[in-house]
Amino acid sequence: MYAQTVRYDQFGEPHEVLKVEQRLIEPLKQDEILVKMSARPINPSDVIPIRGAYKHRINLPAIPGYEGVGTVMDTGPFAPRSLIGKRVLPLRGEGTWQEYVKTTAELAIAVPDSIPDDIACRLYINPITAWVICNETLQLSPDQVLLVNAANSAIGRLFVQLSALFGFRVIAIVRNARYTEELMQLGAWHVIDSSRVSIYDAIMSVTNGQGAHASIDSIGGPGGLELAKSTRAGGIFLSLGLLSGVQVDWSIISKELGVLPQLFLLRHWNQRVSVSTWHETFEKVIDLVQNGKLLLAEPEEKFALHDVKEAVQFAENRQRTGKIILV
């Protein structure tokens, strides 16, 4: 059987290197399942590798996409036949930007019928990252202060919501005041518009000159360094992304500021946790989503898989406000 797939044979700009092709689906291995995909989001983490940021660990040709949802159509001889017809997240196998995806049965995450595809396809990258950081990496005590820049992003909104569950306080940093009301409603302690005020001055004012106990940087560059300067000595500076494309100066953060810099990579957590912990973590996050305690915003636009180039360009438009979904 042949099926539609998106792939790239060289690194470069997505609109130049992405190809939509027909791919032969090979027979399933013993513990594999075959999933017919119904929805996949476009995340920055999907697009960055296409440009070659991780070329040292990506073998070409490659298929993009780290998450999505679909229905199990077939199983290998050692995988449970009872999975056929079930909706799952086929994770840590093949790239999800294709019509059919193979992965091992033990890593597939069952999805309750009450969660629609538009939400289910986004239950991995951002929600699991946010949960692990709050629950395992930072472990902030009630009333301790966490700084989050790019707080209007999908994962920024999750940190704000999780602060209510864990009891810590979030100072949300944005570049546009239009996000203030929404973030306050989601649970932010304070919202700072960096286009109008100095981040450092505003945070010192809010924290009585003490600075935050921890900070999460998704931007890097000068913006990330400003966040680190607003973190108290002995606090944690967690690098999560590089929206600016520029690394922060780690030596300044650790040696001059006395702040503890850390890099969070979800794949490192994946590698060290057991299969049971993998499933237990998803169960907790899915329960929060089902009960309305963790809200994922409605997607802004949907594109057919064969329109992937247009979809990626739309996803990288700074004016958009929601996720783009490939269907």
What's the short story on this structure?
The chain is an alpha/beta fold and 327 residues long. It contains twelve helices and 15 strands. The strands form three sheets. Strands 3, 4, 5, 6, 7, 14 and 15 form a seven-stranded mixed β-sheet that branches. A six-stranded parallel β-sheet has the order 10-9-8-11-12-13, sandwiched between helices.
User: What is the CATH homologous superfamily assignment of the largest domain?
Assistant: Medium-chain alcohol dehydrogenases, catalytic domain
Q: Could you name the CATH class of the largest domain?
A: Alpha Beta
Q: What is the quaternary state of this protein? A: single chain
Give the tally of β-strands. Answer: 15
Order of helices and strands: EHEEHEEEEHHEHEHEHEHEHEHHEHE
Number of helices: 12
Describe the structure.
The protein has 327 residues and is α/β, with parallel strands linked by helices. The protein has two domains: 2-123 and 296-326, Quinone Oxidoreductase, Chain A, domain 1, CATH 3.90.180.10; 125-267, NAD(P)-binding Rossmann-like Domain (Rossmann fold), CATH 3.40.50.720. The protein contains twelve helices and 15 strands. The chain has helices at residues 14-17, 44-47, 117-120, 125-138, 154-166, 180-186, 199-206, 221-229, 250-256, 266-272, 275-290, 308-315; strands at 2-8, 18-24, 32-41, 69-75, 87-89, 100-104, 109-110, 145-148, 169-174, 190-193, 212-217, 231-239, 260-263, 301-303, 324-326. The strands form three sheets. Strands 3, 4, 5, 6, 7, 14 and 15 form a seven-stranded mixed beta sheet that branches. α5 links the parallel β8 (145-148) and β9 (169-174). α4 crosses α5 (154-166). The chain is globular and about 65 Å long. The mean pLDDT is 94.
